[in-house]
Amino acid sequence: MNVLEEVTITTKTILLIDDEVSVREIVELCLKDLGGWNVLTVDSRAKGLQGAAFDRPDAIVLDLSMCGMDSFMFLEKLRNNPETQAIPIVLLSAKARWLDSQILQQYQIAGVILKPFDPVTLPVQIATLLGWDFSPPTY
Q: Is the overall model pTM greater than 0.85, yes or no?
């Protein structure tokens, strides 16, 4: 007797927080089309806190250098909320060069991707930093 096993494939969801419209659009398209992931986008850290708590994404991609709420205050709030404290974060920023491993460890940052970035390799870079298996979507 043959038994068919149902395999459930879950698509990862990424919350993208960036205040630059063009960057958000490019990153969203790359992660959706090349990564095969669901992408939720917001343009502020305040909306990012709400989105992270409400949507519970598998990961957050955050631009470190945005206007408004201080980046480290945002990270503190994210890490102090039981609903969001375990969500992995990848920083996508031109100003993250000065971050040392102690700061990354303190805020549980999975890694940093510097701007300008290569849109074609972005999903692979993110998956690698997060420790996710990556296979490009087939259409």
A: yes
